[in-house]
Amino acid sequence: MSEDREDGSVGEGAAGPEGTAGEEQVRYDQARYVENGQYEPLLSEKDLTRVEIGGADATDETGDDAESPLPDDLTRGSLELPELSEPELARHYTRLSQMIYGIDSGPYPLGSCTMKYNPKFTEDVAALPTAAVHPDRSERSIQGTLELLYRLQDYLGRIGGMDAVTLQPPAGAAGEFVGIRVAAAYHEHNGEGHRDEVIVPESAHGTNFASAALGGYDVVALPSDDDGRVDLEALEAALSENTAALMLTNPNTLGLFERDIEEIAAMVHDVGGLLYYDGANLNALLGRARPGDMGFDVMHYNVHKTFATPHGGGGPGAGPVGVVEDLAPFLPAPRVREGGTSKSGDPTYELFDPEQTIGKVHGYQGNWLVLVKAFAYIARLGDEGLADASAKAVLNANYLASRIEYDVPYEPFHHEFVASAGDQDAADVAKRMLDYGVHPPTTKWPEIVPEALMTEPTEVEGEDTLDRLAAAFNAVAAEDDATLEAAPDRTTARRIDQTSAARSPRLSWQALEEE
Ligand SMILES: *Cc1c(COP(=O)(O)O)cnc(C)c1O
């Protein structure tokens, strides 16, 4: 990482991801943004007085040697900080926030990811002083915390049709891994430890394959039928006495409901396997249908997709796991249950370890504040509000699909649909949509649709916004390749070298100057 990065590029030189040297990449055009007054330097780039604080040589106000009583190897030495006034600092971050696109800027129709409404009141609830409870306090002194966790376990169990829930896993993918480990412990306990295969549809999310493999299983990929659903004959052929589980999401990644789900469940159960539900698409079913009623034995909930907590950006999430009764003894420890009654007659709550627990999978009960937000969201919407959300999610996806010119090969879909960009490159379409002021859909996945544009408008958007999204899709559909390849043209950062940005990220300004 030694190139001159005056051009503001991210990563290693001008060559594209796969050594496409010579093919000039369209890059973040710093000069243009300085010219337009849109460029915002780092705080440490601003030409400002720096204050030195701390350090072995520092002196205090009296001029005395203020040397730290700590051993030298535990002290930082000197620390340079830019000296800025409060408005300068506020402007810096406000300007940065104006250079990016987020859920507060416009629609965010990322299929499968469900970038939905995250009402601000859930942030207020999470910021309450009473939410800042130290996890190591005694059970007696955190009864409110335990009650919230207990009630969230209960809400999620009722929403999914599951008998027991753990709140610990910190993301959907982590929930998958826990679910698979719980399934493995169950089989092992029943003397069925020889089962070594997990079946995953080809169209599934990458984390399903990864979780099964990390859980120690051989992954058997299942092809889809011509309608885009589970191919029952292929499933029959894949199932055997070695099957530990089949992982499915329903509606599937094409937005299609697996109509044969009861038959699928019976087939899996007949060979002694378990049915795993990937909860990423639960937004389509909320308050209307429950995985437990369809025959699923174990599921995760992506609370940041289905309920609240801004999704993405690498922040913490939560992926609670629900199971049917037979699997409950294997859930991670501890869980929360009702313990007894207080003097005033209210129920009390306590932590307990399920008898055959697979152990602890996260500190305390998981990402507590994320769970608080999910709880607040569910409690505010209630049964009717949740059912209303799924109805509108499905209506919005169908309305949007009816307004766009790209072909949508698989129907009838529910909360999301997968259009095909046809002769255009889906990634270029996505970049170009940014120029029309909207966020693009998920692209190039699932692969079953060529040049996939996987779109999920969510229940949040109104007709005007959906029309604006459709107009952006349709404007891009009419454009030529040269225009698409040069996009985005109107954003602060243009087409960056994403592979290099991911493989050799610049994480420290200081370190780079020193290199
Ligand atoms: C998002 C997603 C996951 C993984 O969930 P995370 O919470 O992001 O870890 C799994 N399956 C599907 C279908 C998804 O869309």
From TrEMBL:
- Provide ranges: composition bias, Acidic residues: 58-67
Reply yes or no: does the keyword Disulfide bond apply: no
Domain named Aminotransferase class V is located at 184-312
Q: Where is the Glycine dehydrogenase C-terminal domain?
A: 389-484
What are the alphabetically sorted keywords of the record?
Oxidoreductase, Pyridoxal phosphate
Q: Where is this region: Disordered?
A: 1-85, 483-515
Q: GO CC terms on record?
A: cytosol; glycine cleavage complex
Biased composition (Basic and acidic residues) is annotated at: 487-497
Q: Which reaction does it catalyse?
A: N(6)-[(R)-lipoyl]-L-lysyl-[glycine-cleavage complex H protein] + glycine + H(+) = N(6)-[(R)-S(8)-aminomethyldihydrolipoyl]-L-lysyl-[glycine-cleavage complex H protein] + CO2
- Gene Ontology terms, MF aspect: glycine binding; glycine dehydrogenase (decarboxylating) activity; pyridoxal phosphate binding
Q: What is its EC number?
A: 1.4.4.2
So which residues are the signal peptide here? Answer: none
Question: EC class of this enzyme?
Answer: oxidoreductase
One GO term of the biological process aspect = glycine decarboxylation via glycine cleavage system
- One matching Pfam family is GcvP2_C
Q: What is the protein name stated in its UniProt record?
A: glycine dehydrogenase (aminomethyl-transferring)
